[in-house]
Structures are given as structure tokens and as C-alpha cells.
Write a structure and sequence with these properties.
The chain has 268 residues and is mainly α. The protein is 62% helix and 6% strand.
Length: 268
């Protein structure tokens, strides 16, 4: 039995009881009449670790680009309006290409929820950790939250729009949205408790109620700014936050007396 090797993948062919010759372009490469095993070694088709790593990295980049496009689309038309076909058109890909990365519309929606939550944490939560523990951190947390909400006036907040879409629709997407919001509110609650423990708020204050009221301010900001187009929505939000802090025992910042006033008092 003869096999020619003219540019085909290299292999070793072992067969029971066969007289075998594997012939290259320039003559006989191998001959063996006592072979007992049959195996293929596709050495030319085996990818090197470097090429496999590049392929994985490219696949991850493609999926990240698709998720980014999907997130932008979802903030405009909602998670429910998100589909493989609509995303393929926006991302300028084939439907099969998009589907290969997610497998279902639901998995695409879940990927968008996860990506939104990661970006929310990166913009709102983690930067606030640089502030001093207690009331300064709580203030920074709310400032970051307000800033992001303001930036989403035109595009919309996925947590708020998602709640309207999936509040009465049980399933993985609703669970993912609810879990993300609860995770965030738990972080706000920790900041409130830390502020209380640091003595920046009243010792007997209700942390859960305070978080509820702060969350209510953000929801009101979205509604007033996005739906009613109120020009004073940010101002009302800032005043509302200070009122909440004062009601829960935060010390009012002392305003230093101007030097000129001090001199006049001394002279008198």
C-alpha cells in the first residue's frame, strides 16, 4: 500500500499486518511490514499555543465589540427590543456570526446586563472608594451616581427601563437585573452604615430607610429630567440629598467667619 506526501499534512500511518510505504515527492519516506497500530498525527493542522492565544483574544475582542453595540442599542430601544437580527445590522455582522457568540437572544440580554453593571461599578462605586470612609465616601458615591444618571438622560438607565420591561416577567433576565440593582443598593447601605459608625450620622438612624430615600431621589431625577425635561431636576436632587443627610443627623458644614468680620468684632 502506497501513500504520496506532496504537500499534504504529515502523518504516521500504522496498520495491522500491512506492508506500508509512505512516499514523498523525492522517493520512499518510510516502509514498515510489522506495524500493529493505526493512528493519524495531523501535525501540520495542530495550532501552536501562540496562534490559539491570538484566536481566543480575537474572539474575545469581537464579542466585546458586539456587547458594546448591544448595550448602546438596549439603552435606546430597551432589552426587550434587543434581537440577534437588529444587533447584526448595527454591528454589521451576519446573524449567524452574532448568534455564534451568544447562542440565544436571552444570553445576549444577560451579557448586556452584566456589561452594564460592570460599567456602572467602574464609574460610580470604585472611584468613591478613594474618598475617606464615612460621610465623605457616601457623598462621593451619591455624586458619582448623580453624574452617571445625568449622562444617561438621553440614552436612559438600563436598571430603570429594565424594571419597567421585566417587572412582571419572571425569568433569568429579570433575575439578573434585580440582582444587579440589589448588589448596588447593598453597597450604598454599607456606606450609610459606615457613616453612622464613624459618628457622621445619628447612632439611632435607620440605614435601610435612608437608602430607600436616596434611591428615590435618583429615580425622581431620571423621571423629572428625562420625561418632564425639568431644568431644575439636578438642583432639586442636590437639595434633596442634603435634606436627607440633615434629617439623619449629619453635621451641617461650618462656614468660617470672614477675616474682616473678625477684625471689626475685636475692635468693638
Amino acid at each position: 500500500m502506497r501513500f504520496r506526501h506532496d504537500g499534504w499534512p504529515k502523518f504516521v500511518l500504522l496498520a495491522w499486518g500491512l506492508s506500508l510505504e509512505v512516499e514523498c515527492a523525492h522517493g520512499v519516506f518510510m516502509q514498515n511490514s510489522t506495524i500493529v497500530l493505526f493512528r493519524w498525527f495531523m501535525t501540520d493542522f495542530q495550532k501552536s499555543p501562540a496562534s490559539e492565544s491570538r484566536a481566543i483574544h480575537k474572539g474575545q475582542q469581537t464579542k466585546a465589540a458586539i456587547v458594546d453595540a448591544a448595550l448602546g442599542l438596549a439603552t435606546q430601544i430597551g432589552l426587550e427590543g434587543l434581537s440577534i437580527g437588529a444587533l447584526a445590522e448595527v454591528a454589521r455582522m451576519s446573524k449567524s456570526g452574532v448568534f455564534a457568540h451568544f447562542g440565544s437572544r436571552e444570553e445576549l440580554q444577560l451579557s448586556v446586563v452584566r456589561e452594564y453593571h460592570e460599567r456602572f461599578e467602574a464609574e460610580v462605586f470604585y472611584p468613591a472608594l478613594q474618598a475617606e470612609r464615612g460621610l465623605p465616601r457616601l457623598r462621593q458615591l451619591f455624586a458619582n451616581w448623580t453624574k452617571r444618571t445625568s449622562a444617561e438622560i438621553d440614552s436612559g438607565c438600563l436598571y430603570i427601563s429594565g424594571a419597567a420591561e421585566f417587572d412582571d416577567r419572571p425569568g433569568p433576565v429579570r433575575d439578573a437585573l434585580a440582582s444587579s440593582v440589589k448588589t448596588w443598593l447593598a453597597a450604598v447601605h454599607r456606606s450609610v452604615v459606615q457613616a453612622r459608625d464613624e459618628g457622621h450620622l445619628s447612632a439611632d438612624m435607620d440605614a435601610e430607610q435612608m437608602v430607600f430615600e436616596i434611591h428615590g431621589l435618583i429615580l425622581a431625577l431620571q423621571y423629572e429630567a428625562r420625561f418632564l425635561r425639568s431644568a431644575k431636576s439636578l438642583q432639586h436632587t442636590a437639595v434633596g440629598f442634603e435634606n436627607i443627610l440633615a434629617r439623619y443627623g449629619a453635621a451641617v458644614p461650618s462656614v468660617p467667619t470672614p477675616r474682616s468680620t473678625i477684625k471689626k468684632s475685636v475692635k468693638k
